[in-house]
Amino acid sequence: MTEEIFDFDPAEMLDSDEAVEAYLDEVLKTGDAKFIASALGVVARVKGMTKISKETGLAREHLYVALSENGNPTLETTLAVLKAFGLELTTKRHAA
Known about the structure:
With 96 residues, this protein is mostly helical. It has helices at residues 17-30, 33-47, 49-56, 60-66, 75-84. The relative contact order is 0.14.
């Protein structure tokens, strides 16, 4: 018996602004910087990398690198990308 491995692309599930927001909320909870950068890249692909590039003023190539699994976007880049998504960074106290 052979097992098949299928690629999963979370972008396929992000078909609404609410889905994007829920996805990013869950990703941010992990605290994993590389996963967060990659997830921002997934959403940027869904929204259109060219559109995000124009809205942020950042080069597409920069976005592809910064928002990859091995990316390390600056806070400035992260805030600009979130704004282009129609989202903002907020804080809340976590349960101790």
